[in-house]
Amino acid sequence: MTNNGGLDLTTDTRLYLLLSNPQDINSMNIMVVKKSLSEGCTPLIVSINRPGQVLTKSYAKEGISRDQYYVVDAVTHYSGGTAISDPHIRYVNQPSDLTGLGIAITELLKEIPAQKKCIIFDSVSMLLIHIPTATASKFLHFVVNKLKLSDVSGIFLCVENGIDPLIFSQMSAFVDRIVQYDDLKKEFTVLSGSWK
Question: CB-based burial of residue 83 (10 Å sphere; 0-12 exposed, 13-18 middle, 19+ buried)?
Answer without folding.
Answer: middle
